Amino acid sequence: MLDKSGYAFLKLNLQGRNIDSIHNSFATYKHICYVDLSNNNLDSFAVFGQLPNLIDLNLKKNSIKDLKALANEEYFPYLQTLNLSENKVADIGPIKCPRLVELNLSENRIDKGEAFEGHQKLINLNLRKNRLANIAFVKDMPNLVELYLNENKIKNIGGFENLGNLKILHLRGNNVFLLNRLLLIVV
């Protein structure tokens, strides 16, 4: 509740400002819901996890190398949309954001995801233009509707366990020649 002694900022847009770090004191802006720091030089985004009302976080075109902040169960309680495209992420680990529905990890360096545990709420997952050859980790996402895997190094499509709502699967730009068990999803 606001005590009328100051301002409650809801949006922050600092695109293309050559920012390379965010001070921990930023977490005091508890009311911020939307952050766009795309096209900067950030290599970490953990400080944003301390914003209890954050819904949308756009960190496209930065220098982020890992997703460790997403594994913290206390971070990002209301985050719904996360754009980390065009960064330097190499693998996908656990994602604990309970309300996350859209995750864009396109144009990174992702070549593995064995530590990924699935996600119950995710509806849209974009892994376009990465280095994925094995996608066995793409499972346990019962609400996933859209999955973008185009322009990777995928040759075999298998797994896809517990993806019952999948309706859109993009595979263009891969050398797919084996679609084992995919027919179970289509039927």
What does this structure look like?
This protein is mostly beta strands and 187 residues long. Helix content is 3%, strand content 13%. It is built from 1 helix and 8 strands; from the N terminus they run E-E-E-E-E-E-E-E-H. It has one helix spanning 182-186; strands at residues 11-13, 34-36, 56-58, 81-83, 102-104, 124-126, 146-148, 168-170. The chain has an 8-stranded parallel sheet with strand order 1-2-3-4-5-6-7-8, with no helix packed on it. The protein is globular. Mean pLDDT is 91; it is low at 182-187.
**Poorly predicted parts:** 182-187
The share of residues in helices is: under 10%
Beta-strand content: 5-15%
Strand order of the largest sheet: 1-2-3-4-5-6-7-8
Quote the average pLDDT. Answer: 91
Shape: globular
Task: List the helices and strands in order.
Answer: EEEEEEEEH
Please give the alpha-carbon distance between the first and last residues: 51 Å
Labels describing this entry:
disordered C terminus; mainly beta; single chain; 187 residues; 8-stranded parallel β-sheet; globular
Summarize the structure.
This protein is an all-beta fold and 187 residues long. The chain has one helix at residues 182-186; strands at residues 11-13, 34-36, 56-58, 81-83, 102-104, 124-126, 146-148, 168-170.
Write the layout of secondary structure elements.
Layout lengths: L10 E3 L20 E3 L19 E3 L22 E3 L18 E3 L19 E3 L19 E3 L19 E3 L11 H5 L1
